[in-house]
Amino acid sequence: MSGVRYPAEAVLFDLDGTLLDTIADLAEGANRMLAELGRPLRTLDEVHSFVGKGIPNLVRRCLTENTQATEAEIDAALPVFRRHYAEVNGRATRIYPGVLETLAALREQGRRLAVVTNKAEAFTLPLLERMGIAGHFDAVVSGDTLPVKKPDPAVLFHACRLLGVDAGRTVMIGDSANDALAARGAGMPVLLVTYGYSEGMPVDSIDCDGLLSNAREALDRLQAL
Fold first, then answer.
1. What pLDDT score does 2 carry?
2. Which contacts qualify for 159-167: CB closer than 8 Å, 24 or more apart?
3. DSSP element (H, E) containing 190
4. How far is CA 14 from the centre of its chain?
5. Which is nearest to 217 in space by CA: 182, 181, 193, 196?
6. Helix boundaries (H) for the chain
7. CA 92, chain centre distance (Å)
8. In angstroms, rounded to a whole number, what is the distance separating the alpha carbons of residues 221 and 42?
9. In a 10 Å sphere around its CB, with 0-12 CB exposed, 13-18 middle and 19+ buried, how is residue 155 labelled?
10. What is the pLDDT of residues 121-172, one digit of tens each?
């Protein structure tokens, strides 16, 4: 499969773990929340394995993994996390190697680009601006843009509509089973980076169309327009 090139007029990117290494800020926000609530703090590795299905899932796992919390406690913790994460969002985040060059090359080739993330819009848009990459994207679909998130393919179809490109002429690039399942449901190829989060699951065990050790390798997987 490594030699297959896809006729992609558009490329959809996951955000956390694919374009940006956000784990330090997520862990800081989570531990500030836990400290305020008097709960045990989490290690970076633990938070790393909790990321992928959006903030509510992250908060739930921080409060319930190997411990207990009521639904009322989880609901009350959400605004606490959001308040703390808003303060640190982007502070320690880094752009992964190869990402800037890849985005610039794809745009130069005339491809349409979008971010499709499970992160809420209130954090996604400021983060893209803060990291200086917002201008590369023609559309952004966040975790609360629609009533559903990845792995529901509806978010990928929505991104394609915003870009004006058929799903069959689009490639998804992500780091987890959420991205792979959404792409499979949308009928588009999916490439996964090996350096991301993947919710603690070995990325090479996820059904996809190829693995990327650096974002630049995506350029070799696309047909010329």
1. 54
2. 159/12, 159/114, 159/116, 160/10, 160/12, 160/186, 162/114, 162/138, 163/10, 163/112, 163/114, 163/138, 163/139, 164/112, 165/9, 165/10, 165/112, 166/9
3. strand 190-193
4. 4
5. 193
6. 23-37, 44-50, 55-64, 71-88, 99-108, 121-130, 154-163, 177-186
7. 17
8. 38
9. buried
10. 999 999 999 999 999 999 999 999 999 999 999 999 999 999 999 999 999 9
Phi and psi of 151, rounded to 5°?
Answer: -90, 10
* Confidence (pLDDT) at 105: 98
14 tagged catalytic:
yes
> Looking at residue 51, what is its pLDDT?
84
144, 162 Cβ separation under 8 angstroms: no
Per the listing, tokens 């060059």 go with 101
pTM above 0.90, yes or no: yes
Q: What does the pLDDT read at residue 179?
A: 97
- Residue 144 known to bind ligand: no
The answer, yes or no, to whether the previous bond of 151 is cis (omega within 30 of 0) is yes
Query: Residues 14, 21, 25, 179: which is the catalytic one?
Result: 14
Residues of the chain with confidence (pLDDT) below 70: 1-3
